[in-house]
Design goal:
mainly alpha, 0% strand
Length: 207
């Protein structure tokens, strides 16, 4: 009997989860399909029912395995001020030096950015789209609304500072400057989040 859609979806999710974890830990070249499928508890033959290649799987991980975006989408505040406050808490957790390794284990965009830079155009595009979705979610200031997918300059800067400072501080972990980088980025991010939507709101009030 062929597998049901539920079974196929579960298998795909298991592959994505295993691949994301292993790509973040070992890099794209540090793990093969066999290792990913063993970690997922599936056979190598099952891989090709979901992905045509390892590169396609990597692109799917970049696009879909995104803890930063998931946390932002899970915000439950009922007004703009509350959504900003929750975003500030998420950003503070992300940039807390004590959480550096934990974030490295779950943040795909920080962990694989150099692998992506060495990859083809399609994967770099997928990375850019994932980055833009995170930024656009920072701009969401109405409960329940869908982010526009077209982030503001401020939101793009927030995500650049967050992911960039995390990746750099992790690369120099143990050096005193690593904590300073994250603290400085975090302070700037808090101010940027506090101002999200304010210029638009002030313009509307003036009309």
């Amino acid at each position: 009997m062929p597998p049901s859609k539920v079974q196929r979806d579960r298998s795909r999710e298991a592959i994505l989860n295993a691949a994301g974890r292993l790509f973040r830990k070992h890099g794209y070249d540090g793990i093969g399909i066999d290792g990913i499928m063993t970690s997922a508890g599936l056979t190598r033959g099952a891989f090709y029912a979901h992905f045509p290649s390892k590169a396609a799987l990597f692109a799917a991980v970049v696009s879909e395995d995104n803890a930063f975006l998931a946390r932002l989408r899970a915000r439950g505040a009922t007004d703009a001020a509350g959504l900003r406050h929750e975003a500030q808490a998420i950003a503070a957790y992300y940039l807390e030096p004590a959480n550096r390794e934990r974030i490295g284990e779950i943040c795909t965009l920080s962990a694989v950015n150099q692998d992506t830079a060495r990859s083809g155009e399609a994967l770099r595009h997928a990375f850019g789209e994932a980055f833009a979705r995170i930024a656009a979610e920072f701009d969401r200031l109405e409960p329940g609304e869908r982010s526009s997918g077209r982030p503001s300059d401020e939101a793009l800067l927030i995500v650049t500072l967050a992911i960039g400072s995390h990746a750099l501080s992790r690369a120099m972990d143990g050096h005193p400057i690593a904590d300073r980088i994250q603290r400085l980025a975090g302070e700037r991010i808090q101010a940027l989040i506090a101002g999200l939507g304010m210029a638009i709101g002030a313009a509307d009030a003036a009309e």
